[in-house]
Amino acid sequence: MTIQALKQQALEVRKTLLSMIYQAKTGHTGGALSSTDLITALYFEVMHIDPSNPKWEGRDYFILSKGHSVEGYLSALAKRGFFDESLLSTFCQYKSPLIGHPNNKIPGIEMNTGALGHGLSISVGMAIGLKKDKKPNRVFTLMGDGELAEGSVWEAAMAASHYKLDNLIAIVDRNHLQISGSTEDVMGLEPLRERWESFGWQVEEIDGNSMLEVVNALKAAPFKEHKPSLIIANTTKGKGVKEMEDIPSWHHGVPNQHLYEQAMLDFESMEKELQNV
Amino acid sequence: MSDYRACREAYTTTLLTLAQEDPSIIVISSDARGSCSLNTFVETLPDQFVEIGIAEQNEIGVAAGLSVVGKNPFVCAPACFLTARSLEQLKVDVAYSHQNVKVLGVSGGVSYGVLGSSHHTLHDIATLRCIPDLTIILPSDAAQTEAVVRTIAHQKGAFFIRIGREKIPQVYTEELGVKPFTLGKANTLREGDSLTLVSCGELVYHTLEAAKLLSNEGIEARVLDMATLKPFDEEAIIKAAKETGALVTIEEHSINGGLGATVSQIVCANHPVPVKTLAFPDEYLVTGNSLELFAHYGLDAKGIAASVTTFISQVSTL
Ligand SMILES: Cc1ncc(C[n+]2csc(CCOP(=O)(O)OP(=O)(O)O)c2C)c(N)n1
Ligand SMILES: [Mg+2]
Questions:
Q1: How far apart are CA A108 and CA A82, in angstroms?
Q2: What CDD domains does the entry give (chain A) (predicted)?
Q3: Residue B155 neighbours by CB distance under 10 Å
Q4: Quick one: which of A237, A229, A277, A274 has its CA closest to A253?
Q5: For A78, which of A9, A85, A163, A265 could close a Cys bridge (C-beta 3.0–4.6 Å)?
Q6: What is the rounded distance in angstroms from the CA atom of residue B233 to the CA atom of residue B183?
Q7: Domain map of chain A by residue range?
Q8: pLDDT tens string B256-295
């Protein structure tokens, strides 16, 4: 896809995820919006996948370690053809297969996440296994920045470089916020790049809401032979809805009718703008 | 709905009052001050609050360390993470090392509803009961929660308290006229001799409602609130077995290893009579909020009453 088409697709994902949250009256809005461009690029351009055959042996793997951002993930999977988009309207309803976290009963989802700090270990296991079988498949993992306070992340980081996992590409959604406020106030992460480098990772830093930079970085990964790759994707939490951007309470805020309708109109005018470029 | 109150608010409001008088009280949380209703506490007593970030193992370890140097630490975070991820710290650093740490697990049971099994806590009674010297309390409403905090605040020891998330109806109303909490003692909320219903936590209210429905059918149930799961009030259970001849347990927990298992063990060993356990099945639950899940799995008043009626007819044909 062209960058233009991917941007368009990301807007579609944003619209859908916001509708899901608005209808369900629950959801993790801020982190879903900050990571939309990353997930869109992975599913519509970067990863080798076959939606008609989700368990295809040649597929690249994706683990949403920050499982609470499930709304964007489900939207992307449905739009990419893994399951019928009409299912999304049942999100978080009584007896729906779609809960507020990823669940691997859903085609395209590999693992059940939701408890933070598990995804990187799982990904290390997959990457070791694939290497043992001399398979070319890659493993992509998306983590939150607040999530990096979990010690297990660093246990996995150590193992990834120890086993020279250059088939593993981890992404940090660096939106600088978690539930209680700024990551640097809650539990400081900086100097983040140097910390990952000192754990033996090859690090690239990008604007994670610029489709061009996202696609370029993901396509360039893995960055170095014998090393795991880390992308620090600088993003804005709540990206795309001005009223939500950079405000901690939108972590799991649900828009009222007025804000929802306004946001949908804004997305539509963004789409029109894109078409006129 | 005005008399609905959230236990987490009762807990932290009480804790704030106590902490203002006792600077050794330190609250520790892991990016969960909102979930635990701790914002006022943090604003009022910033020096008595330690933020750990999303790191629950570190959180319990740090609390144990604070206890070693004479502080009175209260950990507050979601029950699902504290009782699974930090289980080893809870066992080794807190209970085994005899430290003075109070652990509050919020949004326990199925409070997190649609967020799914990663966020449900249906294993905590079973798991934590096997840790010696750890007191386990599941308050049933806000008034009892407040009484629990006041009771344990200045006791030394390892405590785990599990509460829910939503605003819930009051059990301990003036009309009921029962003292909300005595550590290690069951509360008799209703007298009856047809059988005894034993519950704890949020389902106590639904059990009382079920007892009213049953009364319409001529079944008079004794209702026990077993707020302290450990140490367990064995006497109250043996007495109920002797006096009412049958027991049904009702809990927001897995059918395995919880209140029902505890009661059955005591009844079998002391005065064998029929016992039935109502709890969540040993499987991953359907999607739903907590009230939908209670109803789906027969743990709302209607479901409890129906199971009890069937049980009574089975027992009487024995
Ligand atoms: C082990 C664990 N602890 C706590 C939580 C509760 N929780 C859900 S999201 C969240 C904040 C996540 O912040 P961050 O990783 O920065 O995600 P983002 O900003 O991308 O939403 C927390 C504490 C959890 N899901 N898992
Ligand atoms: Mg973040």
A1: 6
A2: TPP_TK (cd02012)
A3: 12
A4: A237
A5: A85
A6: 9
A7: 3-276
A8: 999 999 999 999 999 999 999 999 999 999 999 999 999 9
**What predicted TM-score, i.e. pTM, was given to this entire model?**
0.96
Beta bridge partners of B249: B198, B277
Say which CATH class A3-276 falls into: alpha beta
Cβ contacts of B51 on chain A, cutoff 8 Å: 180, 186-187
Residue B37 touches partner A, C-beta closer than 8 Å: no
Q: Measured between CA atoms, how close is B116 to chain A, in angstroms? A: 6
The CATH number fitting domain B187-316, selected from 3.40.50.880, 3.90.190.20, 3.40.50.920, 1.20.120.1080: 3.40.50.920
ipTM of the complex in this document? 0.94
What does the alpha-carbon distance between residue B16 and residue A113 come to, in Å, rounded to a whole number?
34
Closest residue (by CA) to atom 19 of ligand 1?
A: A178
Q: What is the pLDDT of residue A277?
A: 80
Q: What is the structure's pLDDT at B124?
A: 98
Distance between first and last Cα of chain A: 16
Say what the pLDDT of residue B1 is: 44
Q: Do B51 and A100 touch (CB under 8 A)?
A: no
Helix segments in A134-224, DSSP class H: 151-162, 183-186, 192-198, 211-220
Instruction: Verify whether ligand 1 is closer than 6 Å to residue B112 (CB atom).
Output: no
